[in-house]
Automatic annotation (TrEMBL):
Residues 1-35 form the signal peptide. It comes from the Eukaryota. This is Cystinosin homolog. It comes from Anopheles albimanus (New world malaria mosquito). It is found in: Lysosome membrane. One of its GO terms (molecular function) is L-cystine transmembrane transporter activity. GO terms for cellular component: lysosomal membrane. Residues 391-412 are annotated as: Disordered.
């Protein structure tokens, strides 16, 4: 009897174990045929970014995939009908007769009406029948394809001008074997600015976690950091470090980083430490920390040229300060603003310039300093081929610069 009971108990145990396993296996087979997922249907647009020229047409695909238990209708929003016409504006999606699995793509045609940039969204009726969270496409309607090409070319030119602009100063320092006339305050602030800018770009471009935070706040946005932003910021940081390294091996007189610059950089360090503590206490997110770094970069851009302009004034000379650097920076700044103006016209997006003038204003501010440096070099101090005795504000001592100027102080 005991043996029989054990056998019966074993059979019962086997049933309670095997039956759920068979049920799970059956559900798995039911839910996946040929690798197809059946956890509800989703609708997406492909691609999710598109450019249309006014008066012309372009197409994209509306893709539906997954288990669809009932027929539905997809409707595109008419909010931007003055900028774009959509055909068809309504897409009926019929449920499959067998299996319930659908994998269909519907071609949608857009015709540009007026320039602008917006998100074209849609919704499923009845609501909730399909996951339509990604049922949107970022549309750019432009006045001219030629302006788009010109804008892209301008972008690469000013990127090259800004990148190359770091090298003339190093070449002049090497030829003169001297850094007299180059403001150490400018170099120090520039290194801080480019370093935090590189940290911002690297983190947002390569960190999946931080990029996720960005998309949580901007679900329909694009990552604002592009590969060329990363490359430029890394190059700028390394080039500035090399230039700063020249200050330790070449003649520099009594020049040093002033107490004012040290004070400003000290404030930046405190701000970064406080932001880091806020992240550690979960008051800030890492994305907020990166935004703090970007604000430091903006602050540096506003003040970094002042020490060099003051040093030129004190010495009544621009010897030791590369005018080629200034000319390249001026070229990059002017082309950058020209690109913004062209894009403003092409996409009727003047609000990005005048509604939020930070980027345009910073570019204009840098260009104005470049103009000041050109006036100093070509007008005010054009006959100065040697330095002028001046009082170093950081030490209170008097320094005489003995640069000989001439062809050794400028690029051919």
């Amino acid at each position: 009897m005991v043996a029989i009971r054990r056998i019966a108990g074993g059979i019962t145990t086997m049933k309670t174990t095997v039956v759920p396993l068979l049920l799970v296996l059956w559900l798995t087979l039911l839910c996946g045929v040929d690798g197809q997922t059946t956890i509800g249907a989703t609708v997406v647009t492909d691609p999710q970014d598109i450019t249309v020229i006014v008066g012309q047409r372009n197409e994209f695909l509306l893709k539906v995939r997954g288990v669809l238990a009932q027929s539905v209708v997809f409707n595109f929003s008419t909010e931007h009908s003055d900028l774009i016409s959509v055909s068809p504006a309504t897409v009926p999606i019929d449920a499959p007769a067998t299996g319930g699995f659908i994998d269909e793509a519907y071609e949608i045609t857009l015709v540009g009406q007026s320039p602008g940039q917006f998100d074209l969204i849609g919704e499923i009726l009845p609501k909730g029948a399909i996951d339509d969270a990604l049922a949107f496409i970022r549309v750019t309607v432009a006045n001219s394809k030629a302006i788009i090409v010109i804008s892209d070319i301008i972008g690469w030119i000013y990127f090259a001008a800004w990148t190359i602009s770091f090298w003339p100063q190093m070449i002049i320092n090497y030829r003169r074997k001297s850094v007299v006339g180059l403001s150490f305050d400018f170099l120090a602030l520039n290194l801080v600015g480019h370093s935090v800018y590189a940290a911002f770009n690297l983190a947002l471009f390569w960190s999946v976690y931080i990029e996720g935070e960005y998309f949580d706040r901007n679900p329909r946005g694009l990552n604002p950091v592009l590969p060329n932003d990363v490359a430029f910021s890394i190059h700028a940081t390394l080039a500035t470090m090399l230039t700063l390294g020249q200050c330790f091996i070449y003649e520099r007189g009594d020049q040093k980083v002033s107490r004012y610059a040290w004070g400003i950089m000290g404030i930046f360090v405190i701000v970064v430490l406080v932001a880091g503590i806020l992240v550690g206490t979960e008051t800030f997110h890492w994305l907020d920390f990166l935004y703090v770094l970007s604000y430091i970069k903006l602050s540096v851009t506003l003040i970094k040229y002042i020490p060099q302009a003051v040093l030129n004034f004190q010495r009544k000379s621009t010897v030791g300060w590369s005018i080629e650097n200034v000319l390249l920076d001026f070229t990059g700044g002017m082309l950058s603003m020209l690109q913004m103006l062209l894009n403003g016209y092409n996409y009727d997006d003047w609000a990005s310039i005048f509604g939020d003038p930070t980027k345009f204003g910073l570019g204009l501010f840098s260009v104005l300093f470049d103009i000041l440096f050109m006036v100093q070099h070509y007008v005010l101090y054009r006959n100065r081929t040697d330095g002028k005795t001046f009082k170093d504000e950081s030490t209170g001592t008097t320094t005489t610069n003995t640069s000989t100027g001439g062809s050794a102080d400028s690029l051919p």
